[in-house]
Design goal:
The complex is a heterodimer of chains A (about 400) and B (about 160). Chain A is α+β, with helices and mostly antiparallel strands and about 400 residues long. Helices cover about 20% and strands about 25% of the residues of chain A. The two termini of chain A are about 15 Å apart. Chain B is an alpha+beta fold and about 160 residues long. The N and C termini of chain B lie far apart (about 30 Å). The chains are: A alpha+beta (about 400), B alpha+beta (about 160). Chains A and B meet through β12, α6, α8 and α9 of A and β1, β2, α3 and β8 of B.
């Protein structure tokens, strides 16, 4: 049994988030054990990134280095990326291909299920040295994760208590993941972005549909996204996962919008080359934006025809690395690729509608000193957790804290 | 002056004016260094070398570059910052369809409004330069980043 964290949650409950949660080193260390190695499914990679038996990739669970592999029989496996001998990284590149993985330090060798298969000079050299006679390789296998693939996405968990992925997600979230991953995908590009803030700030940002049309002026100006558009929020029963969606063509006049002097609502702004926003309704449902989060730190994005997954990796209390993987479908033709190419301007570290998210988390992190007694207010849309037909709500942010607090015992 | 030296000089002068405009925050001049049907992309070397097509900025017209500047000036939120480019001498790689293919290395320091300065980006420019008009213009400019990792955000063009 782990000791309880010495952290008093405000008595208002889910509508308050105490600021020290974003800055305390002891909280960060506990999250590693209770959240990321707890009863959750962590994104590891896409099946499309491990097409052949023998392929493997380095990834992370929280900030813990992990290898995910397709073994020689074609089965997915994942294990710690840490040699059982001296604890060195086994795979320090993005990935590789082979029958086995060897540590460069002393050449200990593992199969693609993380089992120790070779200890160089185990019996010594010229009958001198070597490991003790009772050394058993099988006692030094790498710690493994349970792995499950859902809709082409490979998830891993360290906990025996985690239910199957589809149960974990719930039917509504599972359906919306299948909607994006409806046929084989191919990776169109990678990059990563260092965010100057605690990882939870960026997770909340994805769950916060309230800010989208206020902070991101590019969206609003072109009516890609206003809170008066048809759309809503789906939160799963646990509270930890969510989908926010909207339809571009359904914008209704809104007295609140027209009366409010929003910085984000500049009327005089027109694109010189509007082909940027040319797209097709490839899902046939009119939904032009779908942001989906899976607890704790994974995002599936559809913004028009820009498809991506985002893996959120903590890099210390106040730093986060956001890994963007841009997707298309394996059967995309040249015209579709050209659309995705242009719309790639919308997202990523330089995205018209995402670059602010890189900065705003830092504004929170930098304002933490002196705010130790304070708490964020999360009351938009009420005090509960649940699905809503409006996006002027923070319901899914509260849902995140509902699961977080249960796992962390705070 | 031999033709190859003149070509090198013309391309280097274009690059010098290009980075001077960006570093002096005269971003409105930036699209003017390109042809009307230009192609501009910022892409990581990881993607470029694997043939993965998506990068960070992409434009296939001068108008899209103007839109990028308009968005930076009117829509996007980012903290005050400037760049300082250092560009190497230029290697002329050849000529194709009347365009000069040139490669130059760059380093960019980012200076934040509060004085924080960091080495923000290193990489190379792979340019196709049209020298046939009254002044040299980029018909294509690929900014190939050495690193896949961007600090905070990339707002100002490289």
């Amino acid at each position: 049994m782990r000791n309880a964290l010495d952290l008093a949650w405000p008595r208002e409950g889910l509508t308050r988030v105490p600021y020290p949660i974003y800055s305390r080193a002891d909280v960060y260390a506990e999250e590693r054990a209770r959240i990321f190695q707890g009863p959750v499914w962590n994104f590891l990679c896409l099946e499309a990134e491990l097409p052949q038996p023998g392929d493997y990739r380095a990834t992370f669970v929280g900030d813990m280095p992990v290898i995910v592999a397709r073994d020689l029989a074609g089965t997915l496996a994942a294990f710690e990326n840490r040699c059982a001998h001296r604890g060195a990284l086994l795979c320090f590149a993005r990935g590789g291909h082979g029958r086995e993985i060897s540590c460069v330090y002393h050449n200990w060798t593992y199969d693609l299920r993380g089992r120790l298969t070779g200890v160089t000079f185990q019996r010594g050299v010229n009958r001198q040295g070597g490991m003790p006679a009772d050394f058993e390789r099988s006692k030094h296998n790498l710690r493994t994760l349970r792995v499950e693939s859902f809709a082409g996405i490979v998830f891993g968990t360290f906990s025996d208590a985690t239910p199957p992925v589809e149960t974990y997600l719930g039917p509504a979230i599972a359906e919306r993941i299948r909607r994006v991953m409806r046929k084989p995908v191919k990776v169109l590009g990678y990059n990563s972005q260092m965010l100057p803030n605690n990882w939870k700030v960026y997770v909340e940002n994805n769950k916060d549909s309230y800010h989208a049309s206020l902070l991101h002026a590019f969206f609003t100006t072109f009516r890609v996204n206003r809170l008066s558009q048809e759309g809503g929020i789906i939160v799963d029963d646990s509270g930890g996962h969510h989908v926010s969606y909207s339809k571009r063509a359904t914008d209704k006049p809104s007295a609140e919008y027209d009366a409010t002097d929003l910085r984000a609502k500049r009327r005089d702004y027109r694109l010189a080359d509007p082909s940027l926003l040319d797209g097709v309704d490839e899902f046939g449902d009119g939904i032009t934006l779908q942001i989906l989060t899976v607890f704790p730190a994974f995002v599936v994005q559809q913004i028009q025809n820009s498809l991506a997954v985002r893996q959120i990796v903590p890099r210390g209390v106040g730093e986060t690395e956001l890994f963007w993987t841009y997707l298309g479908y394996a059967d995309d033709d040249g015209a579709m690729l050209a659309i995705r190419q242009k719309q790639s301007n919308l997202v990523g570290p330089g995205g018209y509608i995402s670059m602010e998210d890189g900065a705003v988390g830092g504004f929170i992190q930098r304002a933490l000193p002196g705010g130790e007694e304070g708490a964020a207010v999360v009351e938009m849309g009420g005090r509960g957790v649940g699905s809503e037909t409006t996006r002027a709500t923070e319901t899914s942010v509260r849902g995140f804290w509902q699961v977080y607090r249960r796992l962390m015992g705070v | 002056m031999p033709a190859d030296i003149a070509t090198e000089r013309d391309v280097e002068r274009l690059l010098a004016r290009y980075v001077a405009s960006i570093d002096a925050d005269r971003l409105e001049e930036w699209p003017g260094y390109f042809t009307e049907r230009c192609r501009y992309q910022i892409i990581t070397s990881e993607n470029y070398e694997q043939g993965l097509p998506l990068g960070i900025f992409f434009a296939d017209s001068q108008a899209m570059l103007q839109d990028r500047v308009a968005a930076l000036r009117q829509a996007n939120i980012y903290e005050g910052q400037r760049y300082r480019h250092l560009v190497s001498s230029t290697l002329i790689l050849g000529e194709e369809d009347g365009l000069v293919i040139a490669q130059s290395n760059y380093m960019v320091a980012r200076i934040m409004h509060d004085g924080a300065t960091m080495l923000f980006s290193t990489g190379r420019y792979l340019d196709r330069v049209d020298l046939r008009g009254p002044g040299p213009l980029f018909a294509e400019k690929l900014v190939i980043l050495d690193s896949r990792r961007i600090d905070t955000l990339l707002a100002i063009p490289l």
